[in-house]
Amino acid sequence: MSKWFSHLLLPHDLGSPGRARSFVRHLLDEHELPELADDVQLVVTELATNAVVHARTPFSVSVSRDGPVLRVRVEDGAPEHPALSGDAGPDDTGGRGLTLVEGVSDSWGVERIDGHAKAVWATFAVEQA
Q1: Whose CA is closest to 72, among 33, 110, 52, 43?
Q2: Residue 99: DSSP 8-state
Q3: Which residues of 89-124 are buried (b: 16+ CB within 10 A; e: fewer)?
Q4: Distance between CA 72 and CA 47 in Å, rounded?
Q5: Residue 77 class from Cβ within 10 Å (0-12 exposed, 13-18 middle, 19+ buried)?
Q6: What confidence score (pLDDT) does residue 92 get?
Q7: In Å, how far are 4, 65, 70, 126 from 1, measured between CA atoms?
């Protein structure tokens, strides 16, 4: 059963979501999981963008696999829990990130860390060969 973990620290910088996306793409290629690339990259990009735009702190991206489950996690330094926004209109440029996360992942959630930070995570099923 395949099990691995990788972690990347990123600064509060507008280029960090792109670096998070590349990090994930590299891991999925390295572990021969191209079928997950589009959805996982979308989720990591959305969560990293939220960390940059809303938390305004450095953040980390973790990706792990434990058998049939791939898990991504973005931890930032803001304690506020993100919420799904059903109010985004067709002309709005934001407000859809967690709706996308919910739509393409198998599950997702938020964990409070020591009362001053949080992690948002999502899971994806890995097809067994």
Answers
A1: 43
A2: H
A3: eeeeeeeebbeebeebbeebeeeeeeeebbbbbbbb
A4: 10
A5: middle
A6: 39
A7: 10, 10, 13, 11
Displacement of CA 84 from its chain's centroid (Å)? 15
87's tokens = 């109010």
Is the whole-model pTM more than 0.85?
Answer: yes
pLDDT in 10s for each residue of the chain, 129 residues: 689 999 999 999 999 999 999 999 999 999 999 999 999 999 999 999 999 999 999 999 999 999 999 999 999 998 887 766 655 444 434 445 788 899 999 999 999 988 889 999 999 999 876
Tally of CB atoms within 10 A around 70: 26
pLDDT of residue 93: 42
Token pair of 39 as six digits: 């959805």
CB 96 within 8 A of CB 85: yes
